[in-house]
Amino acid sequence: MSDTNGSDGAGKAPASSADYGKTASFLAVGVGLTGVITYAYFLIASHTLSKTDYGQITVLWSAVFITISALYRPIEQLLSRHISERMVKGQPLREPMRVASTIQLGLSLLFTVLALALRGPIQNSLLDGNETLYWVFFTSVLFYAASYFARGFLAGMQRFGLFVALILSESCFRTIFAVLVAISVLSGQSAVAIGITAAPALSLLVVPFAFARRAQRDKAAAAAAPAPAAAGDEEAGDEAFSFRHGGGFAAAVFLIMFSEQAFLNAGPLIMSGLQGADKAGYIFNVLMLARAPLQLFQSVSTSILPHLTSLHTSEDPDAPREFAHTVKMVLLGIVAFTALVTVVVLIAGPKCMQIAFGDKFTYDRLGLLLVTFGMGLYLSSVTVNQACVAQGQVRRAAVRWIACAGIFIAWNFVPIVADESRRVEIGFLLAAGVLFALLYWVYRRPHAHKGDTPRPGSPEELEARLAILDENV
């Protein structure tokens, strides 16, 4: 698949609907494969490490991904949005690259100072005093700064071949370390953990190919390049785009992504603080019942957004009916899938979990059922969220996401349910149910905010789709 078309900065027409559909399919397959390899890392680690060591790995993973999502995803979005826009308009890319790199450097320095200053609490309270895990956390977050910068650049340049190669190589390099431990070439928790920091570091080998090709294009297009816009005009254009056209949309998408991280990663972190690493590893495995289907569901959630956006903006009188029918069909499919998983859990749920993750933990069928029902409601929430985004409801949806994430986190500290593991399972189900109800209310009663509806084929829509695809890989 071609990475991009047209010359850099020379003005590039937006992709056709057919090309855009191919891009969506390509990304879905690539990221889906990345997710499968990532889960292989945990399956192997669960079988090769003790309960405590594996639990600490899951805590480390959760801490790394919550941190990098909060720090670096906005920069990835900034690059993707502005580079895409300037490619279409034939404007130079220097300014967004300079601004983004400055912000990214500042965030990395801020993290460095805070992480070193708070080394005691992070290492002793969060990572059970494990010095190796602290340095893996520290270096991983810094390496991911470069990785997410590269992702934003590649997405904005529409070089999706290299984009997928970058994230796929991360998963492969990470999993290689777990495999080497499993076959006794390496040994111990430290070797498995190092895979988390080696993944973004080694995957950056892909990046020189992107910048080398860009440099060649710059030289080839230098003679034919149009005169640059006046500084005042360029700044005015940046301000109009970043604030009037995209600022609110990007911020709302960021809140949704951060909330997703809270839903999927807060449980293990909370359990680590309340019950220790053993229980953190247990609840991480249980929540895989929600994580794994969500990864597989991404191809559906990704492809539904442009379809619903096109229907929402269409003047065809049948478009509203088709819009509602599409959402209904996907929700019915989720109900059927949830029913199938429920049957499997009832018949052999605990045994299947031990086959997948080893027999170090004894799984409770009721807990697995609670997470299964929560998974169905969570997938339904993701579907309705896509409908809300297509309708221009992203800001209203973001408020619901962050509120429900807060409810889920707060619930886990309220001792209404004595068993902390059961509290997480019930909290996930309840929060997912509340989220679905609130998003469905927004979907049925839309009040669109101007600029929040991503145009089919626009950088905003691509950004939203990449945000959904790129979680936890």
How is the topology of this model organized?
Layout: H1 17-48, H2 51-89, H3 94-117, H4 119-126, H5 131-156, H6 160-182, H7 188-203, H8 207-221, H9 231-275, H10 277-313, H11 319-357, H12 365-390, H13 394-411, H14 420-444, H15 459-469
Count of individual beta strands: 0
Alpha-beta classification: mainly alpha
Q: Mean pLDDT across all residues, rounded?
A: 78
Q: Which residues form runs of ≥5 with pLDDT under 50?
A: 1-18, 227-247
Q: Indicate the overall shape.
A: globular
Relative strand content = under 5%
Helical stretch count?
15
Tell me the span between the first and last alpha carbons. Answer: 21 Å
Explained architecture:
The protein is mostly helical and 473 residues long. It is 81% helix and 0% strand. The chain contains 15 helices and no strands. The chain is globular, with a radius of gyration of 22 Å. It has helices at residues 17-48, 51-89, 94-117, 119-126, 131-156, 160-182, 188-203, 207-221, 231-275, 277-313, 319-357, 365-390, 394-411, 420-444, 459-469. The two termini are 21 Å apart. Mean pLDDT is 78; it is low at 1-18 and 227-247. Helix 1 (17-48) runs antiparallel to helix 2 and helix 10 runs antiparallel to helix 11 (319-357). The relative contact order is 0.13.
Give a nutshell description of this structure.
This protein has 473 residues and is an all-alpha fold. It has 15 helices and no strands.
Structural key phrases:
mainly alpha; 473 residues; disordered N terminus; single chain
